[in-house]
Amino acid sequence: MSIEFIDLKAQQKRIKPEIDAGIAKVLSEGRYIMGPEVKELEHELSVFGKAAHVLGCANGTDALLLPMIAWNIPRGAAVFCPSFTYCATAEIIAIMGAVPIFVDIDRNTYNMCPQSLKSAIEEVKADKDMEMFGVIAVDLFGQSANYEAIAPIAKEHNLKLISDSAQGFGTTLNGKHPLAWCDVSTTSFFPAKPLGCYGDGGAVLTNNSKLSSDMDSVRIHGKGIDKYDNVRVGLNSRLDTIQAAILLPKLRIFSDEIRKRNEVAMRYNEGLRMYALRIPKVLDGVLSTWAQYTIEVPNHMEFAAKLKDKGIPTARYYPKPVHIQTAYKKFPIVHGGLPNTMDCINNIISLPMHPYLDETTQDLIIETAKKALN
């Protein structure tokens, strides 16, 4: 028996007629770039995510980059972010010539630690030579960061706040989406994400009309009113119409899929609570999209091998945090280091997670994991 880590085929089977019809319509009309389906998707995302403005773009990394360019972030300015994340979070800071300052994570949720953020801000503030600009919090593994604690810290120091919700679009904290606290929220439609397309794609959400207008200009080569008078240096970051046509039926079933992901996670929790070193901890009031189900085990290599023998795939996010990767070693970290980040990386491992895991398959994964941990 072979088990899918993320079963896109099962999802596709559920909505294949709608996907096929959407693609056929795009092919028939021939409006392949920024066609009407893109506008429709942006509207539907704005309704779902409680955002005044949504802009589709080429990928999740560009979604982070668009506001940075629109804000014209100063070179050398500090932007605070976690190291326990995919490199794109820090990458866009460095691309802008700014300085990523790495802060630690909460040991239970793997998301940005507000106290570590506060300490890092105070350290940079004491350095009169460095300007502070913003904070990028990550909704890692599908769970909202603690914006109720992070947002007041950013506001106190007049820092822009971005929610990197590449894994977490759809997550809420006390019924509110991350944008309720942030200047911008971004997401990725990479196929493996909870809301993914069949290629690359992304979106940026904001409630700021001017920022939305500026980012719209940036994503299309810095366009102005005159097609041949570009008013700023921009990007080519448009969302393909076919990807929008694929995402529309996916978005219609997204809430149901989030519910099913939570059901899978709860069964995992109950089955593995007494066996794993750690099972996922979700903040009170958070609805997670469960992009990954990550546990900690004593010997991840042995554990993975035993599961592989039974046809069960695993993955590791992120065994090498960004601050120790070759391209990012030169950037500063908060004083005292990142003890929580470094404490978890030798034990983390993720189990199959998607809405189409039936209970029989879940039980097989749970029982195999328990035996591997005995």
Give the topology, please.
Blueprint: H1 8-29, H2 36-49, E1 53-57, H3 60-71, E2 78-82, H4 88-95, E3 99-103, H5 114-126, E4 132-138, H6 147-156, E5 160-164, E6 172-173, E7 184-188, E8 202-206, H7 209-219, H8 241-252, H9 254-272, E9 286-287, E10 293-296, H10 300-309, H11 339-344, E11 348-351, H12 359-373
What is the count of helical runs? 12
Rg, alpha carbons: 21 Å
Distance between the termini: 23 Å
Q: What proportion strand?
A: 5-15%
CATH fold title of the largest domain: Aspartate Aminotransferase, domain 2
Could you characterize the architecture of this molecule?
- The chain is of the alpha/beta class and 374 residues long.
- It folds into two domains: 8-252, Aspartate Aminotransferase, domain 2, CATH 3.40.640; 254-373, Aspartate Aminotransferase, domain 1, CATH 3.90.1150.10.
- It is 41% helix and 13% strand.
- It contains twelve helices and eleven strands.
- It has helices at residues 8-29, 36-49, 60-71, 88-95, 114-126, 147-156, 209-219, 241-252, 254-272, 300-309, 339-344, 359-373; strands at 53-57, 78-82, 99-103, 132-138, 160-164, 172-173, 184-188, 202-206, 286-287, 293-296, 348-351.
- The strands form three sheets. It has a seven-stranded mixed β-sheet, sandwiched between helices. Strands 6-9 form a two-stranded antiparallel sheet.
- Helix 4 (88-95) links the parallel strand 2 (78-82) and strand 3.
- Helix 9 packs parallel to helix 12 (359-373).
- The longest helix is centred in the N-terminal third of the chain and has 22 residues, at 8-29.
- The radius of gyration is 21 Å and the shape is globular.
